Fold this protein.
Amino acid sequence: MNADDLLNAHLSKLYEDINRGMADKKQIVLKKYISANSNLISDRLVEPIRFTENLTSICAYEIASGKNKYFNIERISEVQLLNTNFKFENLHKFELPDPFGFSDHDGPKINIDLRLNLRACTLLKEEFPLCAPFITHEPKTNTYRLLVDVNNTTPLKRFILGLQNDVEVLGGKEYLVWLWSADIKAFFYHFLLFKLMWKLHDMLDW
């Protein structure tokens, strides 16, 4: 069995266990879930509600936060089925997420307008395939334009910071403020680090 077969078998087992939880109305634990926002790995106790249309995520009510969230299937290590019935079914709510997996519960709509070169466009589609319908080609400049409304800008902020020479921000005030703040913080961090090293240099008389 090759790597692709193993991956497919793993995903099939995840889908099967989540489906069983939904059908039986039982709570489940998403074991060692990798959060793209917090970069933390943790177990998530949830009540599964529904898969997104492309089957890449599961909408579930998270007990700890008291929120309906979307969890990427590929970031789940294992699903543990519990014998505990749903306790918060009246709070379950499914809403179509934005292309980055966030719903209206995660914040107000933010209009994003980006110009991408071919490299950035390709990487964006690979990492966030649901963005593809919102990307258009601009033949005159041979660039690509992303026009989309999102509920949370965290994934795109990180994407832009890693490709600042490949992405031009045309619209999205929150983006500009965040990026500028990040640049300022980075500048002062390196400035203070330089001063500290210089002070140590004088103290030690190197």
